[in-house]
Specification:
There is one protein chain. By secondary structure, this protein is α/β, with parallel strands linked by helices. The protein has three domains: 158 residues, P-loop containing nucleotide triphosphate hydrolases (Rossmann fold), CATH 3.40.50.300; 128 residues, Arc Repressor Mutant, subunit A; 88 residues, no CATH class. The chain contains 16 helices and 13 strands. The strands form three sheets. Strands 8-9-10-11-13-12 form a six-stranded mixed beta sheet, with helices on both faces. Helix 5 links the parallel strand 3 and strand 4. Helix 1 packs across helix 4, helix 7 packs across helix 13 and helix 9 crosses helix 12. It is globular and about 75 Å long.
């Protein structure tokens, strides 16, 4: 259904004018995020581009960055911005609103040449409206569409589009944004604050933020019936950060059916709040469990009473995972007799990472269960790169009976493997 317009042309144009004046306001100094280079190469193609990710994780900032890039080669009147989440559009949502907005823009702004249309908040459209929008966009000539979607999974409605996942600031991005240096002090600060606070302000109310994501991007999007179970499950998952997750145990602890827990976990992961990491050998192991990670350390610390104020291995794992998810790699964990935190597959090669809170906690290399887990994984995957990462210490080579083990600070590993970022 294309949707019936409750606003007339003049009312729609007033909203569009206000939205576009705000969108075109001078930008503060921005920095390029890790995906910026890939995204900027797509603005000249006809293919629809979708930015998806957790609500308030920086999608609008990336849209503004792309807009600034376009303005270096086109006129402002060639760019139209439509925010479907504007409350004034609530009774007019649908394809008809987008079509009328574009028609008014072409009629009154009279842009010529290539047109770029930014549409924010397409997740507020019903499923059939998203598919209708997709079919229409593919039929419109000389227009490049760039969409934003809160959560993930937009490709099921926009199959021909290029989809890019936006995450809260990783440690390497946060260092650049705060103009700090890589090191133990900045890493300790990031572990506590995460990246959402910098994007949304230090006074971010994490509880209210979580409620907003749950209601707008989970309950409304997935027709959740038992909101109480959903909220309890979200806190349960946050409390399980870095741990293997059992659907059976969660069902028992929350007094819910296993099917409900499975469905709700899928919906929560789709919102972008959580990242589930599978066991590397899960395809041959039906009893394998996924590890739960929270997309932001600040959110995890604010809502997980079990996290202590000091550095923890779980938060370090979370930080590394967010860094890895912004790179072109596959991420798993290893579990057999022992466990290894990260199995990273890239271009046919396998890299292994084992996380410890402090280098000083290793007393005897050959008897340390974490070192044994790394060695077991190294032997299993025939990996030539196996590293122990800690929040402190310096670069060391640990001699063991099974061969030398490299130990290095997490921040140094991230610095050495990060993509080049530059201030705009």
């Amino acid at each position: 259904m294309s949707g019936k317009l409750s606003l007339n042309k003049e009312q729609i144009f007033v909203v569009l004018k206000e939205q576009n004046e705000a969108f075109h306001q001078p930008l503060p100094q921005l920095f390029k995020r890790k995906h910026s280079q890939n995204l900027s190469s797509l603005v000249s193609t006809k293919q629809v581009t979708i930015l998806e990710g957790l609500r308030r994780s920086g999608k609008t900032t990336v849209l503004r960055e792309l807009q600034a890039l376009l303005l270096s080669g086109c006129e402002r009147k060639q760019i139209l911005y439509i925010d479907l989440e504007d409350h004034r559009f609530i009774n007019s949502l649908g394809l008809a609103l987008v079509q009328e907005s574009l028609a008014l823009y072409q009629e009154r702004v009279a842009a010529s040449g290539q047109i770029y249309v930014f549409i924010e908040g397409i997740n507020v459209l019903a499923d059939d409206e998203r598919r209708e929008l997709n079919d229409w966009m593919l039929s419109v000539p000389k227009i490049k569409f760039i969409l934003s979607y809160s959560g993930q999974g937009a490709k099921q409605y926009f199959a021909a589009a290029s989809s890019y996942r936006i995450y809260p600031l990783s440690y390497s991005e946060w260092v650049l944004a705060t103009q700090q240096s890589f090191g133990a002090l900045s890493f300790a600060e990031y572990l506590q604050k995460g990246g959402l606070a910098l994007l949304n302000g230090s006074g971010l109310d994490y509880a209210a933020y979580l409620d907003s994501v749950l209601m707008r991007d989970v309950v409304e999007q997935h027709q959740i019936r038992n909101v109480n179970i959903l909220k309890r499950l979200a806190i349960y998952l946050i409390s399980s950060i870095g741990e293997r997750f059992s659907y059976n145990k969660a069902a028992q602890d929350l007094d819910a059916s296993i099917n409900t827990i499975r469905d709700y976990v899928v919906a929560l992961e789709a919102s972008g709040l959580f990242i589930l990491v599978d066991e590397a050998s899960s395809s041959s192991n039906s009893t394998s469990q996924s590890k739960v990670h929270v997309v932001d350390n600040g959110l995890a610390r604010a809502l997980n009473l079990g996290l202590e104020l000091g550095l923890t291995e779980n938060l370090i794992e979370n930080t590394i995972l967010l860094e890895l998810k912004q790179s072109d790699v596959e991420v798993f964990y290893h579990k057999a007799k022992r466990e290894c935190d990260f199995v990273i597959k890239r271009d046919g090669a396998v890299e292994l990472l084992q996380v410890i809170e402090s280098a000083q906690s290793i007393r005897k290399v050959d008897s340390d269960i974490r070192i044994k887990g790394l060695i077991e994984a190294r032997d299993n995957y025939a990996s030539t790169k196996a590293v122990v990462l800690s929040a402190d210490g310096s670069n060391l080579v640990l001699a063991s009976q099974a061969g030398d083990i490299v130990l290095m600070p997490v921040w140094q590993y991230i610095k050495s493997s990060q993509l080049e970022l530059q201030v705009l």
